[in-house]
Design brief:
284 residues, Rubrerythrin, domain 2, 2 domains, two-stranded antiparallel sheet, 2 strands, elongated, binds zinc ion
């Protein structure tokens, strides 16, 4: 009778002992824990058939670099806050703090520019060239989005410039969404961690609220009697922008998980289990 045998290095989940060569029905010789428990914990049991997409690595790299670029590109938000705080404090406080804030803003400016440029490079050169309309749409939408983003990032951010950036950011998110859908199922962490999975539609909604609230605030600010309304709208815009920033952080983390699992896929059950008559010689 053939017995399933562990054919690859597999760590015991309790003590870390290497279970390679042992029967899958047995227990860890070190700690006695069922080997099945270690299998369930280490393997990607629910993985769908991993059809070998030859360019999946490049797609995963493009997705990761583009989401990281979008996150870094959003450094314009804290840059705006830092330079506004520096200007506010310059009149009152001692010199030290405004100077520090100005320097922080200068660093964030470079981070923002580098982020938008990284995204543009990722979708122009790293994303593989496939003859599919879908990929073409991703490339056009994403590249135009990042190019606009980059152009808007050159100037020191002001309220109107930041509001305008919501548009290219939305284009980039729409472009990246199908890549997440395509590669997401390859990562067990991405599939399982519902709470840490950033949904693109929610991110777009927060971005839309931030953009519209900020645009309305600028419009209302033309009349000085609207002071309270303007303050409230700016508060809504700032809160939504902060949500977008956090969401982009999650999105970049998700893309990192996906990249990791594409570069180094977890073995499937059939890869780890063999039978004792297929070569591995196990004796109890
Ligand atoms: Zn053990």
């Amino acid at each position: 009778m053939s017995e399933p045998v562990i054919r690859r290095p597999l760590r015991c989940i309790q003590c870390g002992y290497d279970l390679e060569g042992l029967s899958a029905r047995g227990a860890c010789p070190e700690c006695g824990r069922d080997i099945v428990a270690s299998l369930a914990s280490n393997l990607d049991l629910t993985a769908t058939d991993r059809a070998p997409a030859p360019d999946a690595r490049r797609v995963a790299w493009a997705l990761f670099l583009a989401t990281a670029g979008a996150l870094a590109g959003s450094a314009r938000l804290p840059e705006f806050a830092a330079s506004a705080a520096a200007a506010e404090l310059a009149a009152t406080a001692a010199r030290g703090l405004p100077l520090l804030l100005d320097k922080t803003a200068a660093v964030l400016h470079i981070v923002g520019l580098a982020g938008a440029a990284t995204g543009l490079i990722a979708l122009t050169f790293v994303l593989p060239r496939r003859d599919e309309r879908r990929v073409l749409r991703i490339r056009v939408l994403g590249c135009v989005g990042f190019a606009l983003w980059l152009a808007l990032s050159v100037a020191t951010p002001n309220a109107i410039g930041l509001t305008a950036t919501a548009l290219p950011a939305g284009m980039v998110l729409l472009a990246l969404s199908p890549l997440l859908r395509e590669l997401g199922p390859r990562s067990r962490v991405y599939r399982d961690r519902e709470t840490a999975k950033q949904r693109v539609d929610e991110l777009l909604l927060a971005l839309g609220i931030a953009g519209v609230a900020s645009a309305c605030a600028e419009f209302a600010a033309q009349d000085s009697s609207n002071e309270t309304t303007v303050a409230l709208l700016r508060l809504v815009a700032a809160a939504s922008a902060a949500l977008v920033l956090i969401g982009l952080g999650y999105l970049a983390t998700n893309a990192y998980w996906i990249l990791r699992s594409v570069l180094n896929p977890e073995p499937t059950l059939s890869e780890v289990l063999g039978t004792s008559d297929s070569g591995s010689n196990h004796s109890a």
